[in-house]
N-carbamoyl-L-amino-acid hydrolase
Amino acid sequence: SPGTSTAASSSAAASSDAAFLTDFHHVATFGATDNDGVDRQALTLEDKQSRDWMRGWAEGNGFEVRVDAIGNMFACLELVPDAPYVLIGSHLDSQPLGGRFDGAYGVIAALFAALRVKENVAESGQKPRFNIAVVNWFNEEGGRFAPSIMGSSVYAGLFDLDEMLAVQDLEGTSVAEALAAIGYNGTDAPPEAISYAEIHIEQGRILEREATNIGVVESSWYTQKLDIDVLGEQSHTGATAMADRHDALVAGAKIVLAVADVVNEFADEALVSSVGQHVVEPNSPIVVPRRVHMVADLRSSDPDIVKAARDTLHQQIASIALEHDITIKVEDFDVRGKLYFPETGVELAEKAVANEGLSIRRLETMAGHDSVAMNHRVPAVMMFVPSVDGVSHCEREFTTDEDMIRGLGVLTNVATELVNG
Ligand code: GLV
Ligand code: MN
Ligand code: MN
Ligand code: MN
């Protein structure tokens, strides 16, 4: 069984834990920021460094690396010729001024877990049913190219490949151009998945508060974004009469407040919302802004709450437009339904945690993950390790080495079970 180990293999596992930590902290040097974070947005040179590292590590350890047309990287270990693959992984890209753990932990843990699965297979002499591959999904974060969770959503058939290749960043560079610029415009057929497992930091404080080692995700929150384009009129900040101004930023500021205040219509913490991205044009001290583009993010466990908040905001934005005699375009996008993960996978994680002698708790994910996209295509298992203070998408994001090692053990157990079918 995956939980038992001989003295020899447990000392091998210990050295491998140390190697895992060394590699994890090495990858955190790619795009390292001044305050212990990383800035490794999709398809930047820093993202390329982390991708090149993964390719080198995987090839050096006997994996075959494939890159598909949207830049997803798969490190494949064939254990049974022609069988489908258990996919395990996460993403190496980060938010701007992001943390070291969100995503990268799951990819690097998956590399070590896959290697251990291979060693276990060789030691046991038993023939597994499926192959295993580690995946680094393209653009989970969506900070540079929207929407987020892009590579896994293309793989899962939720997003159209050509549409995503045409998506542009704020500079007008397309995904296709950016992939080619760093040499990750792949042509390989991705491995066919039979199941998916991912480990990630919690990004909340439930595990920390309850002193629990592992979280297993039962369901994901309902989420949606609003793409808001406020179109005013550019003029001189000094020379234009106040009555003649159509200031896109004043109207935009009222929208930001409306998005923040809409949560007050619901129970405490039932709805969360923010305007994350906000771009002002032309952004000069002496020019009344002609345009503000912003993206609001609305999330709740209850789909009806998000829908009600969305309706309220559409109405409030219409009246702000009227009040300022300004055009405001609002589009709903990146709507993700509430999704349940299969009970068999939840129980698999619970069994793996018991094998490792650890504690586990079921929970919901408020953050979006590649597993949410993958769960549309194959049964997915999503697991969390504790986040100190529950913070993420910032440099202060932190998880202890000890918790990362525990999660690696659990992921190895789960992957072993999945490979044995
Ligand atoms: C991306 O990180 C998300 O949580 O949606
Ligand atoms: Mn993530
Ligand atoms: Mn993230
Ligand atoms: Mn995420």
Remarks:
- The chain has a mean pLDDT of 96.
